[in-house]
Amino acid sequence: MAFVRAMCLALERQGQAPEPLLRQAQIAPTDVGQPDARINALQMEVFSGLAMRALDDEALGWFERPLPWGSYGMLARASLSAPTLGVALHRWCRHHGLLTRDIRLEVDTADGTCCIVLTEHRPPGGDGSLREFCFVSVLRNIHGLACWLVDSRIPLLGASFAFPAPAHADVYPLLFDGPATFDAEPTALRFDARYLTLPLRRDEHAMNQMLSRALAIQVRPYRRDRLLMQRVRQVLLAQPQQAHNAQDLAATLNMSTRTLHRQLHEEGTRLQALKDEVRRERAMALLQRSSRPLKQVAEAAGFQNEKSFIRAFRGWTGVTPGEWRGNR
Q1: In this predicted structure, what is the pLDDT of residue 302?
Q2: Consecutive H or E run containing 115
Q3: In what order do the strands lie in the sheet with 187-192?
Q4: 227: exposed, middle or buried (C-beta count within 10 Å: 0-12, 13-18, 19+)?
Q5: How far is the C-alpha of 230 from the C-alpha of 242, rounded, in Å?
Q6: Torsion, Cα of 48, 49, 53, 56 (10° steps)
Q7: Exposed/middle/buried for 23, CB within 10 Å: 0-12, 13-18, 19+?
Q8: Structural domain boundaries, residue 144
Q9: How many domains is the chain built from?
Q10: Does a structural domain hold residue 264?
Q11: What is the CATH number of the domain that holds 312?
Q12: pTM (2 decimals)?
């Protein structure tokens, strides 16, 4: 409800009564002032749209100049021809700077992590609820669009915000699925940079359909995750003994074996390649950092016996595990 109050404030500043719009969104005006009141996703979607149209401002009064209805749709269209998500996000952030200079958005990548960074270029004074709502809305917008463009959930590694924790901080896990920190610079979202390499899966027809109800991608979390390889790696690392074969792994991931192989193929990899990659990393780490017998190393790396481990290791390195360890 804190975000509803922020939108009501934006309307009142422009001399517009929020009550008629609240009723259209089936939000009781008497609930707006209740600190513990909650709304559902559809109410948020409807009221946001009504307020933006009433003000003809998709930024709801926070930026120095309004962003007329359709501004963010224009940014989305300009990103649609990008070959990968990374190019699309760079393009979206660059074009956002043409709409307003009150904030700057950048895509930074380092150590396998992508950060969408929001930098504020105006004094943070004024009503803090509008500032918070601006930051949350912009980041939810770009995250929702990114998920939609590649037709995949993009799980967040974390989110940070340059304002103190609000009274309703307990709802932030519903808005951002990674850990949220406050009074933290910079304001940013972080996720696995491998999502940036995914190709865009949308066309002009899909774009037109999405823009007819664009706020849904900002309000509602995306469920499907196309970066299956990351989930497979996590299972192989955490449960090496429960992932000997595709059937066991698929059952752990709650999918069929056929779907497992097909989705990995779409992502440009194979299950065996991922198993070899994870086993090799684990085995080399154990050989280098411990004095465990080869039999124990083989078991910890997910091999059924020492002989198959030695054979695979020789294929990776050209030498046996014992010879490799002796040369470290």
Answers
A1: 80
A2: strand 113-120
A3: 103-110, 113-120, 187-192, 156-160, 180-181
A4: buried
A5: 17
A6: 60
A7: exposed
A8: 56-154+198-219
A9: 2
A10: yes
A11: 1.10.10.60
A12: 0.70
